[in-house]
């Protein structure tokens, strides 16, 4: 494949990742009633949308029937989302989203309404959006394309390396915090009372201060991730993760 073609694919990947990020931020911010900086990486992009767009562009570009495209894309996008959920769980021992409460879901990783939404977006992409994006990117001179794609690729890879490096330590930190919490509290009710009630007792105040100190073990990347994915679940230390969410929520009040 020609270098220019690869560079165009990468630029398309980033464009649709950014559009996906905007869509996720609007949707999740509306649901949570406050701004949510959505996305696994630090940059303003959601790669799953970029990969989904490329799958449509590469595999489904010859389909001219919108109904056939709708059903084919719905199946492919569901496979992509299911695999992404499974892979993230295996790598980081965490579930980033959970559709278990939705009707017609499969193992909480995908659900029917989501498939319909992605299928609809795929039809819009292929028939309306991408022809315009492709026309614009074709006008970019070769030299400018080389520089632009090179710089953006380097930034994207750096973001991936930093994020993965940070998140691989996430479970180790959860383990450490779990041991601390277990040594401090006899029950979950005691913990709940401390963070929800006014603190007047000196001993309890020290416990609360100690709990907030545990938050410092998590860097900005990890704390942003916890806030960005309200349904994030740890496979090994989910009780502790839920306590950390409560702490972050109480601290932001």
Description of the structure:
There is one protein chain. α1 (3-32) crosses α2 (47-59). This protein is globular. A hairpin with a 3-residue loop joins β2 and β3 (110-111). The protein has helices at residues 3-32, 47-59, 66-92, 112-138, 142-167, 170-184, 188-196, 202-215, 220-228, 238-251, and strands spanning 94-95, 105-106, 110-111, 233-234. The model has no long low-confidence stretch (mean pLDDT 86). The longest helix is centred in the first third of the chain and has 30 residues, at 3-32. The protein contains ten helices and four strands; from the N terminus they run αααβββααααααβα. With 253 residues, the chain is mainly alpha-helical. The protein folds into two domains: 3-167, no CATH class; 170-251, no CATH class.
Fold blueprint:
Elements: H1 3-32, H2 47-59, H3 66-92, E1 94-95, E2 105-106, E3 110-111, H4 112-138, H5 142-167, H6 170-184, H7 188-196, H8 202-215, H9 220-228, E4 233-234, H10 238-251
Helix pairs in contact: 1-2, 1-5, 2-3, 2-4, 3-4
Keywords:
253 residues; mainly alpha; 2 domains; two-stranded antiparallel sheet; two-stranded antiparallel ribbon; 10 helices; 73% helix; globular
């Amino acid at each position: 494949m020609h270098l220019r073609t690869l560079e165009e694919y990468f630029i398309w990947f980033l464009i649709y990742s950014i559009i996906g990020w905007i869509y996720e931020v609007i949707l999740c911010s509306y649901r949570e009633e406050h701004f949510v900086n959505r996305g696994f990486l630090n940059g303003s992009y959601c790669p799953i949308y970029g990969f989904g767009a490329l799958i449509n562009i590469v595999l489904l570009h010859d389909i001219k029937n919108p109904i056939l495209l709708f059903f084919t894309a719905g199946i492919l996008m569901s496979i992509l989302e299911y695999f992404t959920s499974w892979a993230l769980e295996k790598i980081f021992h965490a579930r980033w989203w959970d559709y278990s409460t939705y009707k017609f879901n499969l193992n909480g990783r995908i659900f029917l309404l989501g498939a319909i939404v992605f299928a609809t977006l795929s039809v819009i992409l292929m028939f309306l959006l991408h022809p315009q994006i492709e026309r614009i990117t074709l006008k970019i001179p070769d030299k400018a394309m080389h520089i632009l794609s090179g710089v953006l690729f380097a930034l994207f890879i750096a973001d991936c390396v930093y994020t993965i490096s940070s998140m691989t330590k996430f479970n180790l930190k959860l383990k450490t915090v779990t041991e601390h919490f277990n040594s401090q509290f006899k029950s979950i009710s005691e913990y709940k009372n401390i963070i929800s009630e006014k603190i007047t007792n000196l001993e309890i105040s020290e416990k609360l201060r100690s709990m907030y100190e545990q938050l410092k073990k998590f860097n900005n990347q990890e704390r942003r991730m916890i806030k960005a994915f309200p349904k994030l679940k740890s496979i090994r230390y989910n009780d502790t993760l839920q306590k950390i969410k409560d702490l972050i929520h109480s601290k932001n009040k």
